Amino acid sequence: MSGKRSLIRSGTTVDQMVRAIGDRIVTGFLRPGEKLDETSLAARFDVSRTPVREALGQLSAMGLVERRPNRGAIVAVVTQEHLASMFESMAELEAICARFSAERMTSSERRALEVEHQASARMVRLGAEEDYEYFNTEFHSRLYRGAHNAHIYEMTVMTRSRLAPFRRAQFMLPGRLAKSWQEHDAIVTAIMRGDGVTAGNSAKDHVSIVSKASSVFALGEQPKGTSTTMPVTAG
Amino acid sequence: MSGKRSLIRSGTTVDQMVRAIGDRIVTGFLRPGEKLDETSLAARFDVSRTPVREALGQLSAMGLVERRPNRGAIVAVVTQEHLASMFESMAELEAICARFSAERMTSSERRALEVEHQASARMVRLGAEEDYEYFNTEFHSRLYRGAHNAHIYEMTVMTRSRLAPFRRAQFMLPGRLAKSWQEHDAIVTAIMRGDGVTAGNSAKDHVSIVSKASSVFALGEQPKGTSTTMPVTAG
DNA sequence: GGCACGGCGATTGCATGCAATTTCTCGAAG
DNA sequence: CTTCGAGAAATTGCATGCAATCGCCGTGCC
Predict the structure, then answer these.
(1) Please, where are the H alpha helices in B63-195?
(2) Which residues, numbered 61 to 90 in chain B, qualify as contacts with chain A under a Cβ-Cβ cut-off of 8 Å?
(3) N or C: which end of chain B has fewer CB within 10 A?
(4) For residue A64, what are the domain limits?
(5) Any chain A CB within 8 A of the CB of B157?
(6) How far apart are CA B195 and CA B98, in angstroms?
(7) Domain boundary among B36, B54, B75
(8) How many domains are there within chain A?
């Protein structure tokens, strides 16, 4: 092979591979069950097989790919049951984040949350789904950070990304935008009051609703997205 | 190099390395901050550097080791703050497991839990700490499995193993054995009644107490355990 | 005496090579 | 027509080799 790194940002080659492949899985460009051929991937990214192998190993440790000894790697295929367990976990994790956020957010964090949340109302009125999705992602991220707990943050972000391929289409449901905003509103209100229990419950309900909406799509069709890194998910 | 695999059970060489190194970290044989030299490890286990590198990569993805590009790997050193966040997460996770267990355990699971719990009372009376620890580990594992949620199970087990090095000495505290049993008893009782909320709260309290007890030891001394895989932790 | 700089040894990062296992193909027998 | 099996091709797993980077240490300069 020849030339130099052609893609993605810096870090070691292995890190680039992890991001590149992980991205393609999370965004749905690589679909569950799809074979991940070391040689092809190496050629595709113009590196040797070694960093590809290491990347696959790490992605396997993260649960994004499945590795059968001597039989190659495939994009992790999640059973309907395991998918449900992840959605349920997500609801619980978000509930914790919301509860902690209500108890621990600094006043500037609260202010920022409130401001952004109100700003997103505009997107709802306009029916701007794409833009709302951005706000939505940001909203949830604020909750995760606001919990002020690094480990829960890690678990939540990880779970969220593993669920990403299955959440894509959920805005298809009519009226989902407005409902989503109302659910967010309940969370925000509770956080502002410092009411952790209510915030947690609201968050759990919110995610549960999203889960149900998503699982409708998760069954049959698997979206084949673009390869660009886009802010995934929505809820 | 020559010969064949000398150690540990089957699987690929990389898996063996992951287990071998991970074990030594989890049991405290390798201490936080300790340098993980690829060449030395390769020599120590009589393999080439490649599988060692892959293993370090996976362990890094799991959070057990830290990897500075071009500067080698060290056993992950957790700040006091991050440690606290993991203990707190553990309390929340166990609470979830206990709550779900109360709601979902099959009757045979409930029976087994009860039986084992009662059996462990004997260890308390005898003051058999070693044996109690076995029951204790088993008890918590039953809770994790009883939640019937694969993803939460993964997160809980993972978090538990990352905390393992910091929980070792907790039985030093006088009367801890009896108190631990009583706390377990509260959880079991609630689970038997199907009272998820109480079970969750009891579990959370239980873990919180263990956390406090452990954090006393976590600060200064870092135990240098034996290299054998032993049932870690206790609570 | 302290600090900057440059060469040297040690270590990591990646590429390549080879052996082992698996899968594919094709043919023959039932 | 299906099933089984032997051989070949492809693919994985690991070892080794080489270049690049980092840290160390000694030297010279301020």
Answers:
(1) 80-104, 107-126, 129-146, 150-163, 176-193
(2) 61-63, 69, 81-82, 85-86, 88-89
(3) N
(4) 13-75
(5) no
(6) 10
(7) B75
(8) 2
